[in-house]
C-alpha cells in the first residue's frame, strides 16, 4: 500500500536533500541576458523585456535533472488516484505536478511521493486545491515554492494562506499527513524547509498545529541560526 511509506524517515530525509540540491541549482541558473557561470546548469531563464522570468516550470525541470542522478524514478503530470471536484458538477481525476517512485522487491514501481511546485504569491484557491491533493493521495507530499524575492510580509501573507487551506481541508484528515514544505528565495539565495507531520488523535487540533507550524519567527534569512521555529535555513 502506498500509505505504508508515509512514516519512512529515509524518504523524508531524501526529499529534503533533493530540495537542497534543487535550491542550489536554481540559485545558479542565469537568464538569457546574463553571462554563464561555472556552476550554471544548462537551463536558462527566459527574459521578458530584459527581466528574467522565474516560474514553477524551471523548478520542475531542474528537479527531474536531479532525480536522474538518484535511484528514484519519476513521472510528470501524474493522474491522481482520487477524483476531485474543483469546478463544475462532477468529480474528476486531476494531476500531480510530479511523482516519485521506488522499485519494490517484485520489480514493481511504488509511488512514494507527490510533488507540487508553486511560484510567487498564488491565489488562496490554488493553494487549497493542491493541498487537498497532497492530503488525500495517501503518499508523502513535497511542496516546493519559489519566490523571486521577499520582504518582511512575504512569508506572513503566504503562510496564512496555507493555514487556511489546511483548515479548509480538515474533513479529509482521517490519517497522518506528511508533507515537506520548502520555500526558496531566488535573489536572496536562501530557503526554508520543514516537515509537516500531523496524526489525528495524537497531535493537537489541526488548526492549532498548522498555526504553530507556520508561525512567524524571524523567517527573513538574516538569523545566524540554522533553524528558526523548526525551519531549516538553507543557504548557498
Structure description:
The protein has 236 residues and is an alpha/beta fold. The chain has one domain. It has helices at 9-27, 56-67, 124-136, 154-168, 206-213, and strands at 30-31, 44-45, 47-48, 51-52, 73-84, 92-103, 109-119, 140-147, 177-185, 190-198, 227-228, 231-235. 28% of the residues lie in helices and 32% in strands. The chain is globular and about 55 Å long. The protein is built from five helices and twelve strands. An eight-stranded mixed β-sheet has the order 5-6-7-8-9-10-12-11, with helices on both faces. Strands 1-2 form a two-stranded parallel sheet.
Keywords:
alpha/beta; 236 residues; 28% helix; globular; eight-stranded mixed sheet; two-stranded parallel sheet; disordered N terminus
Amino acid at each position: 500500500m502506498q500509505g505504508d511509506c508515509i512514516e519512512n524517515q529515509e524518504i523524508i530525509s531524501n526529499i529534503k536533500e533533493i530540495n537542497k540540491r534543487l535550491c542550489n541549482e536554481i540559485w545558479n541558473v542565469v537568464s538569457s541576458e546574463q553571462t554563464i557561470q561555472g556552476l550554471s546548469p544548462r537551463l536558462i531563464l527566459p527574459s521578458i523585456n530584459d527581466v528574467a522570468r522565474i516560474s514553477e516550470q524551471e523548478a520542475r525541470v531542474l528537479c527531474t535533472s536531479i532525480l536522474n542522478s538518484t535511484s528514484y524514478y519519476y513521472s510528470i503530470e501524474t493522474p491522481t488516484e482520487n477524483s476531485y471536484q474543483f469546478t463544475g458538477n462532477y468529480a474528476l481525476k486531476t494531476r500531480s505536478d510530479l511523482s516519485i517512485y521506488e522499485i519494490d522487491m517484485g520489480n514493481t514501481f511504488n509511488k512514494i511521493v507527490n510533488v507540487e511546485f508553486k511560484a510567487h504569491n498564488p491565489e488562496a484557491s490554488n493553494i487549497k486545491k493542491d493541498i487537498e491533493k497532497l492530503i488525500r493521495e495517501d503518499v508523502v507530499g513535497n511542496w516546493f515554492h519559489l519566490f523571486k524575492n521577499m520582504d518582511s510580509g512575504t512569508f506572513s501573507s503566504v503562510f496564512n494562506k496555507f493555514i487556511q487551506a489546511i483548515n479548509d481541508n480538515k474533513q479529509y484528515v482521517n490519517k497522518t499527513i506528511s508533507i515537506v514544505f520548502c520555500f526558496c528565495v531566488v535573489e536572496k539565495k536562501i530557503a526554508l524547509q520543514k516537515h509537516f507531520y500531523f496524526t489525528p488523535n495524537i497531535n493537537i487540533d489541526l488548526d492549532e498545529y498548522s498555526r504553530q507550524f507556520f508561525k512567524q519567527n524571524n523567517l527573513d534569512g538574516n538569523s545566524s541560526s540554522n533553524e528558526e521555529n523548526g525551519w531549516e535555513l538553507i543557504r548557498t
